[in-house]
Amino acid sequence: MGSISHLPELGADPEREYRLGIMGGTFDPIHFGHLVTAEQAREALSLDLVLFMPAGSPAFKQNSPVTDAEDRYAMTLLATAANPAFDASRFEIDREGITYTIDTLEALRAHYPLNVKLYFITGADAVLDIMTWHDAERMAKLATFIAATRPGYDINHACECIEASGIEFNVRYIEIPALAISSTNIRERIRHGKSVRYLTSEPVIGYIHKNRLYNTDSRERVDALRTVGEG
Ligand SMILES: Nc1ncnc2c1ncn2[C@@H]1O[C@H](COP(=O)(O)OP(=O)(O)OP(=O)(O)O)[C@@H](O)[C@H]1O
Ligand SMILES: O=C(O)c1ccc[n+]([C@@H]2O[C@H](COP(=O)([O-])O)[C@@H](O)[C@H]2O)c1
């Protein structure tokens, strides 16, 4: 499974409880919806730190093309750099195979002493199907799930689905300022030459343009190279 390198120190004082937030996502690209969600969760649950964890090979996106993990990690690093309570982790992108949250939570649990509590942050869409995630019952024992409201998704419905599953998830629901931003929409806008300013941070936008991510040009370039390679 591999160890988690470069992890921040937490849990040194055995008399104190520490709270570690994990913001998991594909982050293709990371945007202000992710950052607001993490920051509001940090404040609402008094988290000591939020670790942004780009998924290496997202379990539910096996049939969709996903941008190279190094690019998604670089953008995550750029977007989180200015917040002292945020950190970006390579753990899931350095792991081989399909990325399952259970593997990450088990590794974090083994790494930190028990006075460090784990909080996995999700939006209302992702939390809706946590009962179908790999090894959901074991996962439910390792972390509290923070479910944040997201425009277009019904948090009450998510709540009902989780209850109906019969798995005893510990879920905390939080209301956050609504930002109807998605990575899909950002990718679409770039493909059509539209502005993505104020949907994600300037350094992320700079990185996208410098590396020609998401635009038709780069897609055509990849296809052309593939054709040459095959020919
Ligand atoms: N605007 C938002 N408000 C609240 N939560 C969000 C928002 N965007 C994403 N999230 C949450 O962040 C986590 C990671 O999301 P992800 O990286 O898949 O972004 P996405 O915008 O949903 O991407 P895509 O459009 O490619 O599916 C998920 O738990 C998701 O619910
Ligand atoms: O472990 C699983 O089976 C699993 C299935 C779907 C999603 N997840 C995690 O949920 C987070 C959001 O996923 P996504 O695909 O919406 O970006 C991310 O950390 C994923 O690794 C995890």
TrEMBL record:
Top EC class of this enzyme: transferase
Listed Gene3D superfamilies: HUPs
Ranges where the Cytidyltransferase-like domain occurs: 22-189
InterPro entries recorded: Cyt_trans-like, NadD/NMNAT, Rossmann-like_a/b/a_fold
Catalytic activity: nicotinate beta-D-ribonucleotide + ATP + H(+) = deamido-NAD(+) + diphosphate
Keywords: ATP-binding, NAD, Nucleotide-binding, Nucleotidyltransferase, Pyridine nucleotide biosynthesis, Transferase
Alphabetized GO MF terms: ATP binding; nicotinate-nucleotide adenylyltransferase activity
GO biological process annotation, one example: NAD+ biosynthetic process
Protein EC: 2.7.7.18
Protein name as annotated: Probable nicotinate-nucleotide adenylyltransferase
Native species: Collinsella acetigenes
Name of the gene: nadD
